[in-house]
Amino acid sequence: MRLSIILISWNSLVHLKECLASLSYTLQKEDIEIIWVDNGSTDGASRYVKENYPQIQTVTLPYNQGVAYARNRGIEKASGKYILLLDDDTIANENAIYGMVAYMDFHPETGICGCKLTNTQKETQKSDKEYPGLGIKFKNIFYTFIRRKNKEIFHTVEYEPEYLIGACQMIRREVLDLTGLLDENIFYGPEDADFCIRVRNNGFKIIYLPQFSIIHHWKRVTNRKIFSKLACRHIQALLYFYKKHHRYL
């Protein structure tokens, strides 16, 4: 198998329908598989996938156990040379997916690559990031409170960022064999930053490819409800991340 695409969902059937429709062409490819993990949804997603996409491998979890846990259950079932972690609020396209695969084929030093993410208005979203120190998080919360857009620098040529967000990460199989799975102590963010640190520590590159792009609706639930239960779990995960990697700024 050349590529395994892993999606996870938690009560997001509206987005999932769009995402699966955008990936429907892959169901005719013998070298691509889709693995969908239902992270305890109660919106009828399991029934929808079973009735409309019986070819897709599914993993059903009894309740929401976090992003890392759910993705790991999908990774364990994957047989591809490359593993594509993709959020279910994305709309993918053949050019971007095959472009990333081709890049990985010709750049064995690259452990993870990801493409540009845009919204439906073609506005670029920041998916190539700096490690999430306290200063960056406080700045994001401040801009949320004053309803002001944070000024971001968007790269137009491929380069090596500190990390790529988990909404779109194509991972080389050897990287997982060497680095291990995502850290399940992190319920929701920053499991992606943690994984990229570990991958880079094992000698692989993390590469951002802006020449390819997909649509990402970018739910950002913790920024919209910064005092919600999920946001509290996110803060706990950040504190764990800071302690684990000795990164506070």
Automatic annotation (TrEMBL):
<dbReference type="GO" id="GO:0016740">
    <property type="term" value="F:transferase activity"/>
</dbReference>
<protein>
    <submittedName>
        <fullName>GT2 family glycosyltransferase</fullName>
    </submittedName>
</protein>
<dbReference type="InterPro" id="IPR001173">
    <property type="entry name" value="Glyco_trans_2-like"/>
</dbReference>
<dbReference type="Pfam" id="PF00535">
    <property type="entry name" value="Glycos_transf_2"/>
</dbReference>
<dbReference type="InterPro" id="IPR029044">
    <property type="entry name" value="Nucleotide-diphossugar_trans"/>
</dbReference>
<keyword id="KW-0808">Transferase</keyword>
<feature type="domain" description="Glycosyltransferase 2-like">
    <location>
        <begin position="4"/>
        <end position="176"/>
    </location>
</feature>
